[in-house]
Amino acid sequence: MSIVSVMKEVKAAIAGGTAFNPEPLTRPEAQRIIAEAKKGRLTSGETKVIVDTFELPRRAFTMAVGEGPSYRLSAAAAETFNRFFAELGVPVGDSEAAVRTKIQNVIQNVGANLDRHALSTAPKTTNLVATRFYSPGVGGSLETAYVDASKKHFYWSVQNASARLPEKFYGPFPL
Questions:
Q1: pLDDT tens, residue by residue, 115-154
Q2: Residue 47 and residue 124: Cα distance in Å, rounded?
Q3: Are residues 19 and 53 in the same domain?
Q4: Which one, 10, 80, 123, 157, has least CB within 10 Å?
């Protein structure tokens, strides 16, 4: 429905826990969060909120200062989120490897014609799901795909890792 309504569902689902005693986020709660996002047309912002909800308990944090999530995902909730991500084609969770392979295939097919898809201005990537690719070697580049699940496409960015040159964006490419 909206980013705010999805965030309210997330807050309701994770209420009550602390970093030292996290509450489980259960399958019914995950289903309510996803159902709220699916009301109307699913936006990239709503997708990003759900991705962040899925990924936050998996990030590193320091218990010494009480940082970290106040919840943990139950196995059933993780399964529910993974099905949702696979349905959308988002590079997160169990579907990450398959979506990354799709992205790499698209970029390989574009090949030397990548400059034809160059963008004059960078797209807004705040609500897009980012997945990083690295080119090996000295002077290699940091390559990132920014996936917009609502539009079923992605933007490709390339930045020279050693020279700190500005990031160049290409796309959008279909997923």
A1: 999 999 999 999 999 999 876 666 678 889 999 998 999 9
A2: 15
A3: yes
A4: 123
